[in-house]
Amino acid sequence: MQKNSQYIPENMNQLELDMNHPKILTISSDELLLNEIKEYLEEYDYEFLSSDFNKENIKQKITEDSPSLILLDTDQEKYKFN
Predict the structure, then answer these.
(1) What is the pLDDT of residue 19?
(2) Per residue in 26-66, pLDDT tens?
(3) DSSP string, 14-75
(4) Is the residue at 57 inside a domain?
(5) Is residue 25 part of a domain?
(6) Is residue 82 part of a domain?
(7) Separation of CA 17 from chain center
(8) Pairing of strands 69-72, 2-3
(9) What is the domain range of residue 51?
(10) What per-residue confidence (pLDDT) applies to 55?
(11) Does 69 fall in a domain?
(12) Could you give the CA distance from residue 30 to residue 75 in angstroms, rounded to a whole number?
């Protein structure tokens, strides 16, 4: 099994795999910020899942993807949460 061009042993369980490649979900509408975060995370072997700022989409992504960490852009004035 190959992931991020590194060998992953067959006996490694999912928790160990998640700890080695944490999955990050971001909540932001700022494309420039998202690009910077994505580049940084991937450089350090984190898995950038996606980004969104729609409430229902965020709930769905959290349920489906089970991110290890969620980064939230707290500049709330630019958001229109439903």
Answers:
(1) 59
(2) 988 888 888 999 998 888 888 888 888 788 988 999 999 88
(3) HHHHHHHS-EEEEE---HHHHHHHHHHHHHTT-EEEEEE--HHHHHHHHHHH--SEEEE---
(4) yes
(5) no
(6) no
(7) 15
(8) unpaired
(9) 31-75
(10) 86
(11) yes
(12) 10
